[in-house]
Amino acid sequence: MMDLFWKIDWYKVFVPSTSVAELVVRGTLVYLLLFAILRFLPNRQIGTVGISDLLVVVLFAEAAQNAMASNYTAITDGVILVMTIIFWSCILNWLGYKFPRFQHFLHPSPVPLVVNGKMMRRNLEQQLITQDELMSMLRQQGVQKMSEVKLAFMESDGNISVITNVPKSNVSPVLKDESDTYATE
């Protein structure tokens, strides 16, 4: 009985049960396929996590799960998959940094939702945002009326950025506890 408790099959722990080339190909195909699928989802479905960040987390968990679950898979299998995922994440980020056109593919341009106080209904439909959801997002940005909005964009990370028509003259600096803060008059 004690022999079963302490016996470790080191071969199964460290020697890959699948060829290294197959692990790299599988990791590459899954990463790139999921990246392409997530890239074309409406931005609001992604939230504030970038596509590549989301993929890395999900695929790390999956790759590591198989190696840790002891289902006749070596730790090396999981390490190879994780390294493949890291490789593709770094390569895509590097390509986006070096080549502006590729950056546009990785991070789509902001989508205008409001222009000069008018909702862009077609863009709202494309992003699957209702009028009530838009108003909720605008209120979270401190906007009370649609007429106050000069521009509102759905950013590539799923956040809404807002530029208002409200002049900044009603904000004055106030010194409090030796730190610069601002208060409204």
TrEMBL record:
It comes from the Bacteria. Residues 98-168 form the YetF C-terminal domain. It is a multi-pass membrane protein. It holds the Pfam family DUF421. The chain crosses the membrane at residues 20-41, 48-68, 74-95. Its main location: membrane. Keywords: Cell membrane, Membrane, Transmembrane, Transmembrane helix. The keyword Ribonucleoprotein does not apply. The keyword Ligase does not apply. It is found in: Cell membrane. Belongs to the UPF0702 family. This is DUF421 domain-containing protein. It comes from Floridaenema fluviatile BLCC-F154. The lineage of its organism: Bacteria, Bacillati, Cyanobacteriota, Cyanophyceae, Oscillatoriophycideae.
